[in-house]
Design goal:
The complex is a heterodimer of chains A (248) and B (332). Chain A is mainly α. Chain A contains 13 helices and no strands. Chain B is of the alpha+beta class and 332 residues long. Chain B has one domain: Sulfite Oxidase, Chain A, domain 2, CATH 3.90.420.10. The chains are: A mainly alpha (248), B alpha+beta (332).
Chain lengths: 248, 332
């Protein structure tokens, strides 16, 4: 019997925080020593923006990981991943406006209005602001879960804008941005299919004691049914056998 | 606990023992998580990118001592700008040369596979005396001069580069263009074995560029065979490349193997890839934005702030007359 009531995985959150600081530390150290290359501002912008996108996609992977694989631990770091993504996005925007454009508000505004890739990036950032502001437990209580959840569905347009920002930015070589866009598309598709299945399927999860209604509403279906997992397992096997014929 | 045989003060209390184990386990897992997340992020964000290669010593790449000597002794042309040149390190490690990869650091790391000797350039088409010339013959054929030019990339950054070369007009005069010649078409080497980037269809290989004949005959249009008093580094377009300082950098086609004079306007790689973004003329013009970014300002490599971009990259006095009466918004 445990003597203290320990939260599960106490190392997970701090570990993610410290690990996620690595790109920022690397950029800072290389900027100081002149190792960011010939165009250090462009390099810093690229790395900050890409880190923000990776973290944002990671935060969006938490729910699909539970739905498909039954993992529940990613949900514990979802908020942290989202806030880290926002932090990187904020520094990215600050370096763009402050260093790249020299805080020339007119130039920034002209860029945002006229350049579609900067418009997409700026839209992604603005959409993330309310999410960061309402990320606390107190905000969930104040808004009520349903309204809070509605506010936080802004993450979907925000992530799409971020991916489009990346795709539109590159001159010609689309491989890398398209990989991220594809991963994002897959994560969103899993959500859509899951939502459709939930609407179409029986009200309660199968094979387990249904949780109290209140919990269910508060936790966005905490139970992953064995059926859902079986479905996804089949779906992935089928997809893999189409995409990777040598694997079957 | 009551049955403990050892003296009481030597026995770690169970709760503490458990906590110590937990503490160790947590510390280990915390470290593993931070290292894993950190390495994963750094791998995704920086992975696959070449580190800037160390600055190469003055490479000769099989170039004869006489040719090297001619390059090293080239005297500065009065057509040079007095602005401070960008460092050799930046000029030779920050390159767009998609034949060796699409990242700026790729060409410096990958272009070693390019063999620049022996190398011939064929000049033909609408000319009286077509010729296939060895590059070393070309280097000995004309007096070499140093031209310090501004270079404005279409991506809104710029450099100042001390090129070594000779006017394109001098080469064209040797082959005697016919009256039908109105354009000059240039082609880069096509050899995926030497140019690994050509293994991927990022662009339609080989890279091709073109100029109107009067542009090509303008005294500022240069064929470069060196920079900074050295033989041209492979990543900068060895063994010879075009430099047209009033146009965006992509017009300066690299590692040329074929020059053809034509009656019709030749296709050019970037305008074929994205006709709404890159035109045939590609004159530096702050008034005509790239559809996706502004061309009003540029970052001079090595500087923090941005500086205004000048029409024709500051060479308007010399070249604007070439385009008298043309709508430069339409012919961008």
């Amino acid at each position: 019997m445990s003597t203290t009531r320990r939260p599960p995985f106490p190392w997970l959150g701090p570990g993610v925080l410290v690990g996620a600081a690595a790109p920022a530390v690397a950029i800072f150290l290389r900027a100081r020593s002149g190792a960011l290359g010939a165009n250090p501002i462009a390099e810093a912008l690229n790395e900050l923006g890409l880190t923000a996108l990776v973290l944002l996609i990671a935060s969006l992977a938490c729910t699909p990981l539970r739905v498909v694989l039954g993992w529940t631990w990613p949900i514990r770091i979802r908020r942290r991943l989202g806030l880290l993504a926002f932090a990187y996005a904020a520094v990215h925007v600050a370096v763009y406006a402050g260093l790249d454009q020299g805080l020339d508000a007119r130039a920034v505004l002209a860029d945002v209005v006229k350049r579609k890739f900067i418009f997409a990036g700026f839209a992604a950032f603005l959409l993330l602001v309310p999410l960061a502001l309402t990320s606390t437990n107190a905000s969930v209580r104040r808004l009520g879960y349903v309204r809070w959840k509605r506010v936080h569905s802004l993450v979907y347009p925000a992530s799409l804008c971020a991916a489009v920002h990346f795709v539109w930015r590159v001159k010609k070589d689309l491989r890398e941005p398209l990989v991220y866009a594809a991963v994002l598309g897959l994560l969103l598709a899993i959500r859509l299919v899951q939502a459709a299945r939930r609407r179409a399927g029986p009200a309660g999860p199968q094979g387990r004691v249904p949780p109290p209604r209140r919990t269910q509403r508060h936790e966005e279906s905490t139970v992953t049914s064995a059926r859902a997992q079986a479905f996804w397992s089949r779906a992935f096997t089928a997809a893999a056998s189409v995409a990777l014929p040598w694997a079957s | 606990m009551a049955e403990a045989k050892a003296p009481k003060d030597e026995v770690t209390p169970e709760a503490l023992f458990q906590r110590r184990r937990e503490f160790l386990k947590d510390t280990l897992l915390f470290t593993a998580t931070s290292v894993g997340v950190g390495a994963g992020l750094l791998g995704l964000v920086r992975g696959g990118r070449s580190e800037p290669a160390p600055v190469a010593a003055a490479g000769r790449g099989g170039v004869g001592p006489d040719e090297v000597d001619r390059i090293e002794r080239a005297s500065r042309s009065p057509l040079s700008t007095t602005e401070t040149p960008t460092s050799f390190r930046d000029v030779s490690t920050y390159n767009n040369f998609y034949e060796f990869g699409t990242d700026k650091e790729d060409p410096a790391a990958e272009a070693k596979s390019l063999r620049t000797r022996p190398w011939t350039v064929t000049v033909d088409g609408e000319v009286g005396k077509p010729a296939t010339l060895d590059v070393d013959t070309i280097i000995r054929m004309f007096p070499l001069e140093e031209r310090v030019y501004r270079m404005r990339c279409v991506e809104a950054w710029s450099m100042v580069i001390p090129w070594i070369g000779f006017p394109l007009a001098a080469l064209l005069a040797r082959v005697e263009p016919t009256p039908r010649a109105r354009y000059v078409a240039f082609t880069t080497l096509l050899d995926p074995a030497q140019m690994p980037g050509q293994g991927r269809r990022v662009l339609d290989w080989p890279y091709v560029e073109g100029l109107r004949l009067d542009e090509a005959l303008h005294p500022l249009a240069l064929v470069a065979v060196g920079l900074y008093g050295r033989v041209l580094p492979n990543q900068n377009g060895a063994p010879l490349r075009l430099v047209v300082p009033w146009k965006y950098g992509f017009k300066g086609i690299k590692s040329i193997v074929h020059i053809r004079l034509t009656a019709e306007q030749p296709p050019t790689t970037w305008s074929a890839a994205a006709p709404d973004e890159y035109g045939f003329y590609a004159n530096v013009n702050p008034a005509v934005d790239h559809p996706r970014w502004s061309q009003k300002t540029e970052r001079r490599i090595g500087e923090l702030g941005r500086r205004p971009t000048l029409p024709f990259n500051g060479y308007g006095d010399q070249v604007a007359s070439l385009y008298a009466g043309m709508d430069l918004r339409r012919f961008f």
